[in-house]
Each structure stands twice: as C-alpha cells, then as structure tokens.
Design a protein that fits this description.
seven-stranded mixed β-sheet, about 25% strand, about 400 residues, 13 helices, alpha/beta, single chain, binds flavin-adenine dinucleotide, five-stranded parallel β-sheet, FAD/NAD(P)-binding domain
Length: about 400
C-alpha cells in the first residue's frame, strides 16, 4: 500500500515507522523546512513505549530519555506530599515498559533517524499540503508549490489545527477552557538550591497547577504551569509570555517553584491557551483518515496526547495490512477500534483539570485526602488506578 502522511510531528513520524514495519511504502509531507527544536519536554508513558518496543526501537529512544524515580503529587504552596508512585523498575513490572521523560527535539530526532535509515527518501520537508482529492481508489495530494503525489491512503497527522480534518468534516468549534499554560525548559545549574526532584511532580493549587520533571540525563528541568485566566486566547506553541506575569500567577508558592520561575530566561518562556474539543464521531472518509491531535486533540492534564498518536499509528498500520478488506473498511475499523479509548483519555484529561485545581479547602480535603490515605495504607491502589492507561498494550489488543 502507498501511504501519504501529512505532518511530521510525533504522530506522523511514528505512523510512518509503523507503516514501514507492516510492509507499506510511505511519504511524509511536513511544512517546516527542518524538524524544529521546540523547547519543551514530553512524558513518554509505558503504553506508548510498548509500540516502540514492538518496532524494536525502544532502546534508541531510551538512550535519549530520562527515567524518573516516581510520579508524585504535592500541594503547590506548602510542598506537602499527596501521593507518590515509584517508577524505577516498577513501571516495567507493573505496566510492561518504562515511563520516560524526553525533550521533544530528542524524541523527534530519534524517530527521524530511524526513518531515514529505513526509508531515506520518505520525509519531504518544506512540503506544505494545500489540498487533496480522491479519484476512484486513489488519493492525490497537492502541495502549495504545485507538486502532486498519488497514494492509496492519505493520513492527516497535521495536528490540532488540522486542515485535513477541516476538509473532511468542516471547521471545529473549540471551547476555551479558561486555562493558559506556561512552559519553559532550563538547565538545573541555573537553580541554586531547591531543585525539583527527579520525578514527574504535579504541584496542585487553587485554580492552577505546575508540573516539573527532568530531561537529558537530569540536566534540564521542564516546567509547565497552568492557570485559570481568560486574558489570553492564542493556541500557539511559539507565543512568548511575560515572566512577571508568571511570577504573579505563582506568588507565594513553594520555593522550588518560585526559584525555578525566577531562573527562567525570559526569552525561553512561552504560553499557550488551552481549548477543549469534544471527541469527533468519525475520523475517516473514503481513503482518507486522521491520527493524533488531528483526530482527538486533548487537554494536556494526563500527558497522553502524543502517546495516543503513537497507539493510533500501530493500529492504523496493522489494520490497513489486512488483505481481505477494502481500504475504506480498514479505515473504519481503525477508527472504531480507537474511538472509545481516545475518547476516554480525552475525558480523563479534562477531569484532571478539576482535580488539580481544587479551589476550596473542603474540596482539597475531599479530593487529596483520600489519595494521600490510599498512598499510605494501600500504595498498590494508586498504581492500579493507572492500569487501564499505562498497562494497555495496543500491539497485542
Ligand atoms: C503544554 C502541553 C504539554 C503536553 N505534554 C504531553 C506529554 O507529556 N505527553 C504526551 O503524550 N503528550 C503531551 N502533550 C500533547 C502532545 O504534544 C500532542 O498530543 C502531540 O504533539 C500531537 O502530535 P501530532 O503529531 O498529532 O501533532 P503535531 O505535533 O502538532 O504535528 C503536526 C505536524 O503537522 C505539520 N503540518 C500541519 N499542517 C500541515 C500542512 N498543511 N502540510 C504539511 N505539514 C503540516 C506541522 O508543522 C506539525 O509538524 C502536551 C501538550 C501540551 C500543549
């Protein structure tokens, strides 16, 4: 099968690797002239790592990643622990693969390196897709520079503002969540004391939260802060933010957080308005389908957006390999196999927004108290609550 993929993000690159694994021919069209260095980290959970294991490239990714000691939650102002799930060794034992943190640039470059070894001509950079049309059993894709390419299947892995999705199903109507996310990456050496633990740590507070974790052998700290405020509506990874504004958002927080914010280089601080979208009822039409954020954009409160794109990639490549069906049928089967899981993850991500941002004392006690108690009395409960997510193995389902 000749597969055309629009978008060279984590979704598009992984889809290309999965398609090659199942014996298809692929071309990826990425509008950027180089796969850029977005200064941000990403959590790479066991459910995604299982796909890389099945592709035989988990070691390449692990080499560039950082293995956190635990997932933990704390109160943002006092730093008081709420719960801690140990990860070193335990993640593999409990969920069948490691839980990692990785710089996005390292993640993308690992996938790109593998792809270039397997199919040196597959990635077309500076190739912005303008339109596509289906004629009979073929899809023809046109680039803005006028070139045309033909294939059997077209995959829209073109992200949250997907033009392929809009073409198939019309413009979406995202709802602003009233949350703005701040992000920055900085060297640990810029922090004098109060360095964040080598864990994935969620710091909870009224109407806001922070997530800290380490990257690149622990030498970099990734910071994401989310605040309920409605004075910023741009959904863009590259808009700069104002450091004083961020300091005000987390005034009187624990010294780990305030010192970290004070150490951010203002040129490396970005902000992004968070919009919510309901699950799409369908992702495929004819020989065209969607994957990753194009299919199921989700809020970042469960750190699973890219992981879902990785799971989609395996299922899609496997289903289009079934010889006894028409392409259209395989794409419908792919969509139906993925819809309930991705919708559940979308809903759980949204639910975490409420959990993380409890405003009232009573709400905090009723939400975090049982978590703290369960972590003390029966720590395995805290692990088990995540089995549906991290324990899932899309390569055997
Ligand atoms: C603050 C924040 C933190 C997050 N943390 C995590 C996390 O810890 N773990 C996790 O799993 N997920 C996380 N996510 C979500 C994750 O970043 C996304 O789900 C993931 O990057 C989506 O990948 P994608 O390949 O589907 O889309 P994208 O990464 O958006 O890639 C789409 C690509 O398509 C290209 N493109 C678009 N239009 C065209 C066109 N017309 N022609 C050619 N190319 C085109 C774009 O240039 C881009 O390269 C987070 C998100 C946010 C906002």
């Amino acid at each position: 099968m000749k597969v055309l993929i629009v978008g060279g993000g984590i979704g598009g690159l992984t889809a290309a690797l999965c398609c090659l694994h199942f014996g298809h021919e692929v071309t990826i069209f990425e509008q950027a002239s180089a796969l850029g260095d977005i200064g941000a980290g990403i959590q790479l959970p066991p459910n995604a790592m299982k796909v890389f294991k099945a592709l035989g490239i988990d070691h390449i990714i692990t080499e560039k990643a950082f293995e956190p000691e635990a997932i933990e939650a704390r109160m943002g102002e006092s730093g008081r622990p709420i719960f801690k799930i140990p990860l070193a060794r335990d993640a593999v034992e409990m969920w069948g693969a490691s839980y990692l943190h990785i710089h996005r640039a390292d993640y993308i470059s690992a996938l790109k390196e593998v792809l270039e070894n397997l199919a040196p001509e597959a990635l077309q950079l500076g190739a912005r897709v303008a339109s596509f049309r289906e004629v009979g059993a073929e899809v023809t894709l046109s680039l803005e520079d006028g070139r045309e390419f033909r294939g059997d299947i077209l995959i829209g892995a073109d992200g949250i503002h997907s033009a392929i999705r809009e073409n198939l199903f019309g413009a979406d109507r995202p709802n602003f969540t009233g949350n703005v996310a701040w992000r920055a990456v900085l060297p640990v050496t810029h922090l004098k004391s109060d360095v964040p633990n080598p864990t994935a740590c969620a710091w909870m507070g009224p109407g806001r939260h922070v997530v800290t974790y380490r990257l690149r052998g622990g030498q970099l700290v990734n910071f994401v802060g989310v605040v309920e405020r409605d004075d910023w509506r741009e959904e863009s990874w590259t808009d700069k933010g104002d450091l004083q504004d961020l300091l005000r958002d987390f005034e009187n927080w624990h010294p780990v957080i305030t010192q970290l914010i004070n150490s951010i280089n203002p040129d490396d601080l970005f902000r992004w308005a968070l919009f919510d979208r309901s699950p799409l009822p369908e992702w495929s039409r004819g020989h065209v389908t969607l994957l990753g954020d194009a299919a199921h954009p989700m809020l970042p409160f469960l750190a699973q957006g890219a992981a879902m794109a990785v799971e989609d990639s395996w299922v899609l490549a496997r289903e289009i390999s079934q010889q006894d069906r028409a392409v259209k049928e395989s794409l419908e089967i792919y969509q139906n196999m993925r819809l309930s899981r991705t919708s559940k993850v979308q809903a759980a991500s949204k639910g975490n927004m409420k959990t993380f941002h409890q405003r009232r004392r009573l709400g905090q006690i009723l939400t975090y108290g049982p978590m703290w108690l369960a972590g003390k009395l029966v720590p395995s409960i805290v692990h088990r609550r995540m089995n549906w997510l991290y324990g899932f193995d899309v390569t055997v389902s």
